[in-house]
Amino acid sequence: MNASGNADKDKFVAFVEGYQGHYGIIDADWRMVLEQGFLSKLDWLEYSLKRSLWIECADENEQTMGTIQVTGTINALKQYEEKVSELENWLNRIN
Q: Does residue 4 fall inside a structural domain?
């Protein structure tokens, strides 16, 4: 996905097809794979919340950065959630 949260279907499909051309067909539960993408974002949200709330924070600048990151991470989670079904459909049509 690019910075605006959009995925280029043609590039995405070309990448997966290229990978499969080299390594073979991928048999995966794509929903489960894509849902794993939430984990790193949720971990970052937890870390940022702890900084924002002065739980794991050394100074005011770090606390402010944590607060900014909370908002950005929540937005990233929303964008990703909106794309998961679309990406899953693309992946299930490749083969």
A: no
